[in-house]
Amino acid sequence: MGRKIAIIVVIILIIVFAFISFRWIKHRMEYAMTNAVFVESDNMSNLSFYRVSGKIKELYKDEGDYVKKGEILAKLDDKDYKLQLDAIDEKVKSLQFKKKQLQHKLNRITDELNINEKIANITYEELKKNIDLINQNLKEIDLQINQLEKDKGRYERLLSKKLIPERKYEDIKLKLDLLKEKRKTLLTKLEQLNISLKKAEQNISLSKVKKKQIKEMKNAILSLDSNIKELLKKKKDVENILQYTVLKAPFEGVIAKRFVSVGDTVRAGIPIYSEIEKNSFYIKVLLEETKLEGVEVGNKAEITLDAYPDLTFEGVVEKISPASAAKFALVPRDISAGEFTKVSQRIPIKIKITKGSFSVLRVGLGGEVEIKKSKKKHKE
Prior knowledge:
By secondary structure, the chain is an alpha+beta fold. The chain folds into 2 domains: about 30-75 and about 255-370, Efflux pump adaptor protein, beta barrel domain (Elongation Factor Tu (Ef-tu), domain 3), CATH 2.40.30; about 80-245, Helix Hairpins (Orthogonal Bundle). It is built from 3 helices and 14 strands. The protein has helices spanning about 1-30, 80-160, 165-245, and strands spanning about 30-40, 45-50, 55-60, 65, 70-75, 245-250, 255-260, 265, 270-275, 280-290, 300-305, 310-320, 345-355, 365-370. The strands form 3 sheets. The chain has a 6-stranded antiparallel β-barrel with strand order 1-10-13-12-11-14. A hairpin with a 2-residue loop joins β11 and β12.
């Protein structure tokens, strides 16, 4: 009885071993497995300050920290740039105040000029008319005086001969004296008008000088406008630079490396952090050429990482390299003299991760992979 039980146990063990062996062999035939597995990334960027240099004031993230797009990572000491902004603001205010005063003065002088110029022109025209009128009167008086002088001479001769009464001679003489007096008065008035005319001409000339001053003031205002515009442009540039003193994450991802410490002085373009984009992780597999049969793009894969043995990642084959990894070695093997040792080549395969905890992934982690083979074999 005991012998039969022993035989039964042996048979059961043989069956279990055969089943396990069958499952193991079947699994080996259906899956390509290797431990030449590495976590890689398509997008790992070095982040640096743009256009600005200075001392690191704050560092908000460390290696392995998860960051969102636009999140602040670091700050430079921005005291000097803020002082520049304050100085520009003060200068702009000063120039704007100067422009306002100059514009007020320009408006006042322009208004005065317009009034004075109008008055001067009207006065000049009136004086010219009066002068022309007096000159015309003087011509007429001169003709009358000339005629009366002749009449006076003729009347003197007639009076000497007692041919006319003395009263008639006195009338002619009186008329002549009155005309001469009138002529004298007109000449005095003409002289006064000419003096006033010269003053009016001077006022008109002064208007031309003031117009030149107004033009110079307008040019000065334009120059102030230009200076203000340049300062505002400079202010905008400093404001942009001030924004550049804040380093932000360009995308969602994980900090892979921190290159500096608080207090370090850095130049523009010097790496501060290295960040890996969240969805750029992939699995790089170096699969032996003997296991390549049945592995095709689109095949499913399961990945476990040595750092997290309890976690399983799922993925699909995205790309199979057309050349072996040895072709990309720094010192490729020289086979020109022949080789006598057969070496199994490894083919790089890229696997896209479709499921798993991305937050624990780090570039360079190793692990194992099982790739489901296609049932359809490659044609020769």
